[in-house]
Amino acid sequence: MDRMDKVKCEICGKYFARITNTHLQKQHNISCKEYKEKFFDANFDPKGCDRGKYTRGKTYEELYGEDKSESIKKQRGETLKETYSKNPDLRKSRGQGQKRKAGKRKMKKGMKKSTCKVCKKVFWYSSKDNSGIYCSKKCNKIDQSNISKRIWKTSRKNERGIKLKIIDERGSFCEKCGKDFSSNPHSLCLHHLHYNYYTSSDLSQFILLCKSCHTKLHNKIRREQENYLGHTNIMKSIVSLLESLGVSLDDPNFKSTPQRVARMYTELCFGLFTDINKEMKDILSTVFPSSNDEMIIYEGESVGMCPHHLLPVLYRFYIGIIPNGFVVGASKPQRIVDLLSSIPDIQEDITVKVKKAIQDVIKPSGIIVFMEGKHMCMRIRGIKAPNAVVRTSSLAGSFTKNEVRNEFLTLISKQGK
């Protein structure tokens, strides 16, 4: 057949004897109607070969003449429905029925018959693709939810029994804070150390906690899990970076580098994966009354990340406070600096945020935050100054007076020596 006797598909550009609905659905996922709407001047048949143009809506007499039409009517009938009722084999003459039948036989070969556990429908399945229990994903989902409900009910019953055994053995108090719940022992929460179902007879796998301690423990677990969010995206980026640098990932030294770098960045920048306001509230939730009105200095070190080059910054900080009736725990300033420096930020802003966080809670008579930063982006690149140090401070209250500020600076200079 010459190309002139064929029609071109406007989507894929291939030539066919006729553009069929099968081709459009399978290859381009559109119907004939949609194809016609998109390419209104396109043809389904070659020019001059429109099969339906000359036969559609016409009688046998108009097409074949009176003599021939009589014999056709006797053989076929007046209408297509009558033709098929007289000659049912005509439907199969196109080969559709034969193909379907052969397809069914082929499908049954090597397959097994089963009844769905949920809807009781009989279906055929392949042992490679299906276990033969459910006929569809929908039935599987329904049954799994029912199983989960049954397990939950069983676990709740077992939980009550285990809780009573632990109370008889250890007493009705929280094993974290030590608070006694003798008046209401059922308000204690049972925490499973290994996250299995409540079916074990080994009571050492369980601890009793009050609701507050139980919530704090689960929040800590959740934060640890959140630290791994974004690992995959970071790994993909590191792979692209190494490939851009011309490094072969087949080299044993670089084989696990993307995973290591992903863990490093999530560890150094853990503040990006946590709720900073909630974490800060937890750190400063406890303050202590104090009659001291003299200067208190907290000293420590921390590590942050430069937001401009994503290189580490080594911080040394001094926090001076003159209390006004309340003080924070000795470890709190260190935790505050660690939390705020875990978000890539400039040193100047971190200094101000540390001061504000403590000032808003205990409202001291005076507060000063002094930070020294050893920036790797200055020491190993750019100006390459190995001894470069950036010093920043933020102060309020009594420390605005020269004599108080000078006393603080004198004390920290002695500590530095």
Can you tell me the CATH architecture of the largest domain? 2-Layer Sandwich
What is the arithmetic mean of pLDDT? 80
In angstroms, what separates the terminal alpha carbons? 97 Å
- Shape designation: elongated
Count of separate structural domains: 4
Low-confidence stretches: 92-106
Sketch the major β-sheet: 4 strands, antiparallel
Radius of gyration: 39 Å
The overall strand count is 12
Q: Which oligomerization state do the chains in this entry correspond to? A: single chain
CATH top level class name of the largest domain: Alpha Beta
Hey, roughly how much beta strand do the residues contain? Answer: 15-25%
Helix-residue proportion:
40-55%
At the fourth level of CATH, the homologous superfamily of the largest domain is: GTP cyclohydrolase I, C-terminal domain/NADPH-dependent 7-cyano-7-deazaguanine reductase, N-terminal domain
Q: Find the structural class using helix and strand composition.
A: alpha+beta
* Total count of helical runs of at least 4 residues: 16
**Order of strands, widest sheet:** 8-9-11-12
